[in-house]
Amino acid sequence: MSNDIALLNEDAALPAHLQKYQAKAAAEAAQLVTGFNSAPKVSIRGKQFRFDRDGNEVALPMGTPLDCVIIAIDPPEGMAKSFYHGSFKTDSADAPDCFSTDGKQPDSTVAQPVCRSCHECPNNVFGSGHNEHGEVTKGKACSDHKNLFIVEASAVDGDVFALRVPATSLKNLSTYGRRLAGAGVPPQVVATRITFSDATHPQLSFEALNYLDEKQADFSVKRSESKAVQLLLPSKNQLPRVDNANALPAPIEDAPLEIAPPPKAEPVYVLTAKAGTTTKEQFYAKNWTDELLIEHGYMEIQE
To answer: CA triplet 288, 176, 41: central angle to 5 degrees?
Structure first.
């Protein structure tokens, strides 16, 4: 039995010094379920963890896992989003053409927002994506991601790094978050090991290594709630919008239409042969969403 399974077994007794954090687990470990201000970054370029402090990059040897403690998750609900004009870009160092740190509307610093809100943006729907060859994919042109703020497990009081979890890894992150919540622990009191899965594009896997001791756990939780860490979270620290600057496009319902478009039929989602005998209800009971089912080939949009 691996450390992860032994630690996060819902029937296993939680250490006494961590039981006071069980209420925090439901709120914060669940946040893992499906530009970083001033924080240094950990990138995953080339399937290798690379620590970047002010442009000075130190890469872990190929195949070396990242052992860390997750002290903050952003955005706390939903996903952050980024959009590039043109073809798909894997772990691009270029700034996206449009992005949202809260997944609700473009950030104030976006020079030319594509849409007024992420909800109504045509790039935020399945089937709008393109791969590196310019071919249409079932994914989104505006990709989802989650931002983790971590410290190395060997230095809980060390530098805080920002790690962007790409769309291809969100299912694994969500699974890990549900296991933490089920075990009654927030991510701040567990040492987490992050590794690369065997996939074409960088895909991360997450497992628990060990609980922090009482002193480390207390420090980690207090640090996660500190103003210094909260100021690192992009969705909570957006610059205010300035009148007449970076104006968002007019709401779709207010835009004048010369010719009324035909009514758009509601999409019909159907399971594929890959789903086998599993029904939608059974998938939903296991916390699968329509987006994840489409992304992993269990569901498709019927034309």
So the answer is: 115
Nearest to 40 by CA among 181, 179, 159: 159
Kindly state the tokens that stand for 76.
């706390």
Distance CA 286, CA 283 (A): 5
pTM: 0.70
Q: Sketch the domain layout of the chain as residue ranges.
A: 3-253, 268-303
CA angle 1, 194, 167 (to 5 degrees): 120
Q: Tens digit of pLDDT for each residue in 108-143?
A: 888 889 888 898 899 888 888 777 777 777 788 898
